[in-house]
Design a protein that fits this description.
The model has no long low-confidence stretch (mean pLDDT 77). The N and C termini lie far apart (111 Å). The protein has a five-stranded mixed sheet with strand order 3-2-1-4-5, with helices on one face. It is built from three helices and five strands; from the N terminus they run H-E-E-E-H-E-H-E. It is an alpha/beta fold.
């Protein structure tokens, strides 16, 4: 008895040439949800500086260094003990005067009053130099 080709399952399967896109859609939806849930950064070019409140007990007497536009520097003692501010010619003279005032009044904090038009680098350098001299309390004056 001979079997015919139709009984043996002579049909041949056709291969699908389609791409199943359902998994790709699932992945894209998950990524969309992640990007929507993660908050976007604020403008990266904006610098958010920390806010400072007035201290509860401001110092009674302190050494004040003033930086005015055009690199005009002055230093003096303010408060209970009053030493009139001296205008100094350059940074080295200012640092010598600061060292002398610090030796005379070692427990006085230093307050740097930098004009808003002065360079930020000048203020930071003064803070650094004061710290190198051993002055632990260095602050910035604000309005």
């Amino acid at each position: 008895m001979a079997f015919s080709s139709s009984m043996r399952g002579g049909r041949r399967r056709k291969f699908k040439s389609e791409i199943n896109v359902v998994p790709y859609i699932d992945v894209m939806l998950v990524l969309l949800i992640i990007f929507m849930a993660v908050p976007a950064n604020e403008a990266p070019s904006v610098v958010n500086l920390p806010r400072a409140e007035k201290s509860a007990l401001p110092p009674d007497t302190y050494i004040q260094i003033s930086i005015e536009p055009g690199n005009k520097l002055s230093i003096g003692v303010h408060g209970k003990v009053k030493v009139a501010p001296d205008e100094v010619a350059d940074r080295s003279a200012l640092l010598q005067r600061l060292r002398a005032l610090h030796e005379e009044h070692p427990d006085f904090p230093v307050l740097i009053a930098g004009d808003r038009d002065s360079k930020y680098d000048d203020v930071i350098q003064l803070i650094s130099e004061a710290k190198k001299m051993g002055i632990n309390r260095v602050g910035l004056a604000t309005q």
